[in-house]
Specification:
- The chain is mainly α and 43 residues long.
- The protein has one domain.
- Helix content is 30%, strand content 0%.
- It is globular, with a radius of gyration of 13 Å.
């Protein structure tokens, strides 16, 4: 598997450009926990 990394500034630009963006955080829960900005809790 090839890894594609982007820097913080690029992500901020992508989030603010008004276009659709899908971001997946596939790190193990033990590594991320509830501190992930992508964490969503289904209630």
């Amino acid at each position: 598997m090839t890894r594609y990394l982007i820097d913080k500034a690029t992500l901020i630009d992508w989030l603010g450009d008004g276009l659709e963006l899908a971001v997946l955080d596939i790190r193990p829960t033990e590594d991320v926990g509830y501190a992930s900005p992508l964490f969503a809790n289904e209630t």
